Amino acid sequence: AARAADATLRGDMTTDCAAAAPCSLLDFTLAELEREFLGSGLSPVHARSLWRALHHDLKSELAGEADFLPPLRRWLAGHLGDGRRFFIEAPVEAADTASADGLTRKFLLRLADGQTIETVVMGFKGRHTACLSTQVGCAMGCVFCATGQMGFVRHLRPGEIVAQVRHAQLALRTAGHAGLRNLVLMGMGEPLHNYDAVMTALETISDRRGLNLGPSRITISTVGVVPGILRLVAEQRPYHLAVSLHGATEEERSALVPASRRWPLAELMAACRTYFAQTGRRIFFEWTLIAGANDTPTQAERLATLIAGLDAHVNLIPLNPTGGFAGTATPSAAAKTFQKTLQTAGIPSTIRQRRGIDVAAGCGQLRSDKL
Ligand code: SAH
Ligand code: SF4
């Protein structure tokens, strides 16, 4: 896992379509598409009109596009489709399940190579948030996580991340809802282990001329990939940050989160303090509540001490049971005591509803059921 993380953190991925394999048009940011088009003798005007059709109008069929200028139509006829150089990502919906309370909808999407990922849409008072996957599987191995139990399969390309937002947006539109308000990168995979693809996708997703989900509506959740957090700061990426802690001492955290041995808690907290000092933004800390493992008042006090001085908000998530882990969720009374202890120490927190648990909506669980 650690070696795989190293390779990606070097960050040698950009969207270039020199390879023999066909290339997804959804992999390109607008700037990249303009550059690609210049090489083909097309102008930025053509790039913008194609990009708008894809990311604003959410088209996936472009053949009969009357708005396109003739040079762009000619280019598409020669470059897009079976056996040609470009294609448009359109994952197949392999499952669409709704929770009994109707608040959560979970899509299992089949990618071009047959791999499946999940995208969850949660609605509350007419406002919808999509939870996106960033990898097939995950290399980080958190013991309670269904995706971790699956191991690492591969990274998602930018287009495969963008396609999840398109899918959610189109599903909401079909159901007569307003579009997405927020995005969280909390589905399958570790976003900062797939840094470049995630940043490319977020650039496209947050562009006003396209899907227009601005950076203040986007939260990246990380297990604590320290170099990734520092890179977000150095590159002045405008997104919100959530850090999965689950333990407030190195020993307790490492038992649940093996990645903590590689990026120790002390280094992680130093990175969080750098993030806060440079951005002034609130940091969300996630804490999966597991009975007898990390749910005592003493452990809540240690957590409060650990994050003191930051603008912090703690999300307490009672464990969703998974096949590969014997633990159980903290009972609700103990969860409330934990929250009270944090509150006394001046730390705000929310106990997250286990929404959609009847459709196994915990991280990575739908896919595990279908395997
Ligand atoms: N890899 C990233 C984002 C995906 S996981 C991360 O770890 O932050 C999103 C959140 O769901 C994390 O806080 C993770 O710890 C939590 N989670 C995973 N499996 C869970 C389970 N079975 N029950 C409750 N929370 C879980
Ligand atoms: Fe990966 Fe996040 Fe699951 Fe840990 S909790 S295994 S980092 S997806």
Question: Can you walk through the features of this model?
Answer:
The protein is of the alpha/beta class and 371 residues long. Helices cover 37% and strands 19% of the residues. It has helices at residues 2-9, 30-39, 44-55, 70-79, 146-150, 158-174, 195-206, 226-234, 250-256, 259-262, 265-279, 297-307, 332-344, 365-370; strands at residues 23-24, 86-87, 92-98, 104-110, 116-124, 127-131, 135-137, 152-155, 182-185, 218-222, 240-244, 283-289, 312-318, 349-351. Strands 3-4-5-6-9-10-11-12-13-14 form a ten-stranded mixed β-sheet, with helices on one face. It has a two-stranded parallel sheet with strand order 1-2. A two-stranded antiparallel ribbon has the order 7-8. Helix 2 packs across helix 3 (44-55), helix 8 (226-234) runs parallel beside helix 11 (265-279) and helix 12 (297-307) packs parallel to helix 13 (332-344). The longest helix has 17 residues, at 158-174. The two termini are 22 Å apart. The relative contact order is 0.12. S-adenosyl-L-homocysteine binds next to strand 10 and strand 12.
Order of helices and strands: HEHHHEEEEEEHEHEHEHEHHHEHEHEH
Total number of strands = 14
Stretches with pLDDT under 50, minimum 5 residues: 1-13, 356-361
What about the largest sheet?
Answer: 10 strands, mixed
- Residue-averaged pLDDT, rounded? 90
Strand content: 15-25%
